[in-house]
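REVIEWER CHECKLIST
Item 1: Sequence provided? yes
Item 2: Single chain? yes
Item 3: Sequence as submitted:
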Amino acid sequence: MSSNVLYLIAGLSLLLAVVLPSLLERYAVSAAMVLLLVGAVIGRLPLPDGFSLDPVQIRPDIQHVTELTVLVALMGVGLAIDRPLRLLRRGSWAAWSPTWRLLGVAMPLTIAAMWGLGWALGVAPAAALLLASALAPTDPVLASDVQVEGPRVERADGQGDDDPVDDEIDEDDDVRFALTSEAGLNDGTAFPFVHLALLLAASGASAPLLARWAAWELVGKLVLGVLVGMAVGWVLAKVAFNASQRSLRLAEQGEPLLALAALIATYGLSEVVGGYGFVAVFVCGMTLRANERSSAYHELMHGVVQRLERLLTLMVLLLLGMAMSNGLLGAMDWRSVVIALALVLVVRPLAGWVALVVRPRPETVPGGLNRAERLATSFFGVRGVGCIFYLAYAAGEHEFAEERWMWSTLALTIVVSVFVHGILATPVMSRLEVRREEQATA
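Item 4: Structure as written out by the authors:
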């Protein structure tokens, strides 16, 4: 295949990325589904000599591409969330109740259940834990159909998105808020369990090692990530909105690339000091959003991040589809099918339901969900690019005999999630919105 043909395929694929979201808006078909299929078709064409799609051979490239894709998505998610989190207000923490439940209950339950399932199916304990940890986080990249659309601000012409915006602007869809905030935070909070799998594979379990893991990997690095994200976001926000020199007030100039600068600087600083960079980037985005909440600058920053995210997601989906038709699923067996279906259809929904149903918050207040909303929030745990990154990262740190099988199982799970959630997202979310409107007018 000549380079000209590759340019043609890339151009047609980019065109699909531009037109598909609006074209498929009315249908129970997501852009991710179509792009996976397009990639699978392209993968059946003759590929250039030396062009490899073997995940074991190109693991470093996969890690870097997916890492950047997730980071861009996390900054976009942080900027998109309108519900403030004020650290000194108990009510503000309570409004985030679905998020804390999904992170603190649903995700550990999911990891434990999938670890036990893998182990019962004959997978080595460390490999089973790694696969469970890689599959645990929901995805901020592929879950756009069930997430908040972006920051709402008051426009200068007085034609805002909703009512006039003040400092108390909040999300009006608790399902989308819960799924968005969960996806923003659990990409980082899954890291300790990936490190635990690496620890088990390299040294085995012992009380001192587990204690050190809990103190540093589970708590210390998470706290550092949060602090770095808050610090960088606060400094950049003060400069962009309130600097004494006009040349530094980027908000007045409408320069949206600050979001990308913040992303890179935050991730780099967090990794240098030993914190979780994924958590830091999301917190930085939220901190930026928390300042001058009625400024249209937030829309500009979110817009440029969202466009870059779309392009990176396109590339990952196309390559995943191409790899699937070029042997990526070759190591798949019946255990892979059991794991993929169990996670998407049983484990995540049950874990999410358990997390949300115990002492539920009243549905009439922010963070409260009715029965139908709890069911939807529990079910729509989309798996995607973040899962690919974790497996690539861990496989680069330690050699696993089951690596090819894990790649096949991971790919199958992502495909099942993309199609099942993609087909159901539009009708389910539309139905919830109709019921919400009916209750509001009743």
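Item 5: Key structural point noted by reviewer: The CA atoms of residues 131 and 406 lie 7 Å apart.
Item 6: Recommendation: ____
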